[in-house]
Design goal:
Distance between the termini: 47 Å
Largest sheet: 10 strands, mixed
Number of helices: 15
Helix content: 40-55%
Bound molecules: fe (ii) ion
Number of domains: 2
Shape: globular
Order of helices and strands: HEHEHEHEHEEHHHEHHEEHHEHHH
CATH superfamily of the largest domain: Periplasmic binding protein-like II
Length: about 350
């Protein structure tokens, strides 16, 4: 079955035929920082399969965290779902999640892609990689560490230190090299920036294609989205870009996640666990990852072919995102103290 067919209407039937647990009627209050139409199709499929109505509350991750905090014990929220381990670990540090106990989740989600205490589970993977303009001499640029090498002075475009993807990347360097070496790395990177940080990941990719800088750091799905665009200008951007998958001779590419966990004061905790189990089902994994050109976290599930076209197979850092997500505050402090605007 193709992705399109799944998303186009047979998903409900496909899900109904799988082992999604069936609970009595009820509801589920889902706080989500994801905003893809394909997610809504999935939630409807969950309702169809289980009878549980899904009430979706959408906002940015930070705003949802503040809202859940403010609602406290009276929060109607059952699930918090968001991109980036940094967001999940911030919520975890605030005591927002309870441990979900589920043999299904433990069997299906690899151990390094869920919180050690079951506070959250990862359902998609994305990588943060290096992109360069074709024809630019970047010989020797093979690792994240190399981005701080003076060889690449005035060549790099990257987002601000306020961006959580960067905080997680730096958090992963703290995990490997410690704080002092990471501070030095930040200084080198800042010295190599072609401009002060501005714009989003797509903006960095476009700036490289346009020659405003030579090297960008961006998440894999942004280039994939441009590659699937109908706009010839977007396709021309992709055509201008070469991809560097860093650290293939050591720990592998920095992989981040989107994930979800059961909230501490969830009024419907059983429904919440059923929903997480549903997200780990074959069909949901396929569609959920496809919706944003990401990789599923469950082994053996297909992914969008554009990812093979752009990236192929590569070695992924298998560090638990709980580690670098948990380093978020330290990472931000180091970035700000060393000149990363
Ligand atoms: Fe993003």
């Amino acid at each position: 079955m193709t992705f399109r067919a799944l998303l186009g209407g047979t998903l409900v039937a496909a899900l109904a035929s799988t082992a999604v647990p069936v609970f009595a009627d009820g509801e589920l209050n889902l706080y989500t920082a994801r905003h893809y139409d394909s997610d809504i199709v999935l939630f409807e499929a969950f309702t169809e399969a289980t009878g549980i109505e899904v009430n979706v509350i959408e906002d940015k991750a930070g705003a949802l965290i503040e809202r859940i905090k403010a609602e406290g014990r009276n929060s109607p929220g059952d699930i918090f779902m968001t991109a980036d381990a940094g967001n999940l670990m911030s919520a975890a540090a605030d005591g927002m999640f309870q441990s979900a106990v589920s043999e299904t989740l433990e069997a299906r989600i690899p151990e390094n892609l869920r919180h050690p205490d079951g506070l959250w589970f990862a359902f998609t993977k994305r990588a943060r990689i290096i992109m360069v303009r074709k024809g630019v001499d970047v010989e020797g640029l093979e690792t994240y560490e190399d981005l701080a090498d003076p060889t690449y002075a005035d060549m790099i475009c990257i987002r601000s230190s306020g961006n959580i993807y960067n905080q997680s990347l730096v958090g992963s360097l703290v995990a490997v090299h410690g704080e002092a070496a990471t501070a030095e790395w930040v200084q080198g990177l800042v010295a190599n920036m072609a401009r002060d940080p501005e714009s989003n990941d797509t903006g960095q990719i476009r700036a490289v294609a346009a020659g405003e800088c030579d090297i960008a750091v961006a998440n894999t799905y942004y280039l994939a989205r441009l590659a699937r665009s109908d706009d010839p200008a977007d396709l021309a951007v992709v055509e201008a870009i070469d991809v560097i998958l860093p650290n293939q001779d050591d720990r592998g590419v920095h992989v981040n996640i989107s994930g979800a966990g059961v909230l501490t004061n969830a009024p419907n905790p059983d429904n919440a666990v059923a929903f997480l189990e549903f997200l780990a089902s074959d069909e949901a994994q396929l569609a959920f990852a496809e919706g944003n050109n990401e990789w599923p976290t469950v082994d053996g599930i297909a992914h969008a072919t554009v990812l093979d076209d752009l990236y192929g197979d590569f070695i992924q850092d298998d560090i638990n995102p709980a580690v670098f997500g948990g380093n978020r505050a330290d990472a931000l402090r180091i970035m700000e103290a060393n000149g990363w605007k």
